[in-house]
Amino acid sequence: QVQLVESGGGLVQAGGSLRLSCAASGRTFSTYKMGWFRQAPGKVRESVAVITWSGGTTTYSDSVKGRFTISKDNVKNTVYLEMNSLKPEDTAVYYCAAARLPISRYDYWGQGTQVTVSS
């Protein structure tokens, strides 16, 4: 059974940093891509950053490019989202998700972790 467990959310002041973790288990993810998504109250869920498990190719949304970094640890089967220069508009529930390549539908989701950035 696939499990994605996020951690690392919290309350931080604007300009601060947080690192989110997503521990993945239940299968081999070498043929998957992993994504971080976020959803703020009243807004549509948006993709923040994506990384392919094999090769480590990354993509970012324009809103976080240059501030956020997605990475992975193959030994720990964990994906990270390093968030720097946080802004109040980054406040959201952040979710980790997995999609099997080449199909890009995200089939597995974590429970989410709250990130709140105060001004």
Task: Give a verbal description of the structure.
The structure is a single chain. The chain has 119 residues and is mainly beta. The protein is 0% helix and 55% strand. It has no helices and eleven strands. The chain is globular, with a radius of gyration of 13 Å. The termini are far apart. The mean pLDDT is 96.
Characterize this entry briefly.
With 119 residues, the protein is mainly beta. It has strands at 3-7, 10-13, 18-25, 32-39, 46-52, 58-60, 68-73, 78-83, 92-100, 106-109, 113-118.
What spatial form do the alpha-carbon principal axes imply? globular
Total beta-strand segments: 11
How many H/I helices?
0
Based on CA atoms alone, the radius of gyration comes out at 13 Å
Instruction: Give the H and E element order.
Output: EEEEEEEEEEE
**Beta-strand proportion:** over 45%
Mean pLDDT: 96
Estimate the helix proportion, in percent: under 10%
What keyword list fits this structure?
119 residues, mainly beta, seven-stranded mixed beta sheet, four-stranded antiparallel beta sheet, globular
Q: Mind sketching the topology for me?
A:
Blueprint: E1 3-7, E2 10-13, E3 18-25, E4 32-39, E5 46-52, E6 58-60, E7 68-73, E8 78-83, E9 92-100, E10 106-109, E11 113-118
